[in-house]
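Changelog-adjacent note: as of this version, every example in the card shows the full chain rather than a window. The one below runs 86 residues end to end.
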Amino acid sequence: MGRKKNTGSTSINLKGFILKDKANHKFAFPNFILAPGKIVKVYSGKGTSNSSSLYLGSSTAIWNNDGDTAYLYDSREKPIDTYEYP
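Full-length structure tokens:
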């Protein structure tokens, strides 16, 4: 669902960052280092997390397939970014 890129020049630990949608579904990032210039994709389903993909492990859909908006907040709940799709 969500896709976030580190556009900075240093690595970021996303632990404690929150990804939410308009319906207030939430994903709290685990201890995860995002290197400069790298992208992480967040999926609601089951899978194996790695350096570019994180999975919530949910057995039900969380993000809307026909479109949704994701809001990223840092560990202090400061808004960081918004990602909208279809």
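Structural remarks: The mean pLDDT is 89.
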